[in-house]
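Checked the freezer inventory, then went back to the computational side. Two predictions to log before the end of the day. The first one is the construct we discussed on Monday; recording sequence and tokens without edits.
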Amino acid sequence: MGAAVTGRGLTAEGCIGVFDSDVGGLTVLDECLARLPAEDFVYYGDTAHFPYGDKNVEYLRERSMRAATWLVEQGAKTVVVACNTATAAALAHLQTHLDVPVIGVMTAEAHAAAYTTRNRRVGLLATVATVQSGAYERMILAHDAGVEVTSVACPRLAPAIQRGEPYDETIVEMVREYTAPLREARVDTAILGCTHYPMVSRLLRRNLPDVTLITSGEELARELRESLRRKGLLRSAGREGTYRFACSGDPGAFRALGSRYLQMPLGDVARVPLDDPVPAGRA
């Protein structure tokens, strides 16, 4: 049995580590910055290995472990998996092998969807890997076994958003195609099961009128704050938290696209490939 990957002593002064396959998780970070302004954040985007949505479970666990381990080494008191695909494939693995709290974007969304729906018909838009995992369905049905879940894999949507392409007729038609099964199922609540999708929320609302959209950022930020409070790790108010960024790919590209997501300058972005062997962790 290997040694667990441990933090540097869990105190309120530690930072919050956040990772995603690229810049999509910045939609989650944005909500966390607003709800937890006194906290320090370190964000890692595994941009050299984007997208995660078409990768197998073993690969996703390996890349997630690399990112999470690096964040713990940076002094993270909590690790946030700001990627739905990585949460579905690797959350339990990370929680087993890390000695810091690890939370993912899916649990809070599933809970919110189950308690928001009025007609007990919930839709899910997500990557192929997330849909195939069945994780959302299991979580929703754990809250209400009578809910009907309609899941739609959207393999082309996140890459199109990531490329920063103009929202032209191609994107419009793509959203129309992916939302059609949810309209046919007459869902009244839909989970945006990828952190990129809030970037096209206006298009989604146009195609899903009168449907409540559940996004990961707002729900996770609320869960994160409560988790830190319960564990005595919440920073005292009265200070302005810091944030810094790293990625495995091109820092310039990350900075340019990330600034568009956060609507503010990112400053320096470190390039951290994370190609070294991963610590064994607990067996």
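The second is the one RB wanted added to the comparison set:
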Amino acid sequence: MPQQDRARTDKIVTLLVVDDTPENLAVMTELLSPFYRVLIANSGPRAVRLAQSDPRPDLILLDVMMPGMDGYSVLEQLRQDPRTIDLPVIFVTAMNAMEDEQRGFDLGAVDYITKPIRPPIVLARIRAHLELKEAHDWLQNKNEVLEAEVAARLKEILLIQDVSIHALARLAETRDPETGNHIRRTQSYVRALAECLSGHPRFSARLPPDYIDLLAKSAPLHDIGKVGIPDHILLKPGKLSGEEWEIMKTHARLGSDAIEQAERDAVKPVAFLAIAKQIAHWHHEKWDGSGYPDGLAGDAIPVPARLMALADVFDALITRRVYKPPMPYAQAQAIIVAERGRHFDPDVVDAFTVVYDQFVTIAERYGDDSNTG
């Protein structure tokens, strides 16, 4: 390579010359050493070792006819190792039959030079393939940098998305200050239930890992509709009247309507919003059809809403309210189990019994100071 080419690459270029004949090694070394760092190997096994060692060669000039391990075998082994799979290899051989040349290209050689060599041709071929390798490496590095930038930007977007979700959920929470860490607890309960059910025949197809992540992301928005409930009803310390209760129940539809409006404003469908809308709208439905707002029953209730229904009730039971003290965990567990097949999907209750200890751990981790469950 001329000096100007070396300067452009800004690195010492290393070539590995492989030949079992000392005279051939001497000729190639004399030709190449003014421009490159030259490593030599007089056998196939030594060539493989040098190719896998530092300094790693940028290009290999490989003889074909060598005793023991020939050039074809060397190339096959190089292509099986991730460290050497992309090294450009030029065969340099006295074999000039078309079939030999084709076999070399089929194995992954980038070029084929026949002996006796012509120095200007050898130097030109080497320079061309080094420039191709440099371009390939630049593109690969550029792609890696771009992929890292995209990953970082995606991570930032997801973080902003999570923060925005929690901000909206906290907005609802400010209208109902007694809920404390309710958002974090119910989000974690829902994830625990979903992960437990992910291996169940009824749920495995509906709860792949990516969907569970979206489900957990969506859960904090389940009570977003409470921002539309008047304070004299939402903050009333005593029992609600019949009329007040009917107004309170509208928070489910208010929440789903708000999320649906956000969906319409989005440029394209947002998966977690679709799940959040299901949860907000139907997390007060009951398995036997006696819930609200639509009186859905059984499998007509979307899975996300079924999971949130149990999580929400459990947390309400163990949490202090102005109208009641917190309930002990075991008593809340018994109530949930008693509602199997009535309020809750039987299989969801069964999953709850499996992960009950996780529920308790979550409740303790994100407990409110006033809770003694």
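For RB: The beta strands are 14-18, 37-41, 59-62, 89-93, 111-114. DSSP finds 16 helices and five strands in the chain. Let me know if you want it refolded.
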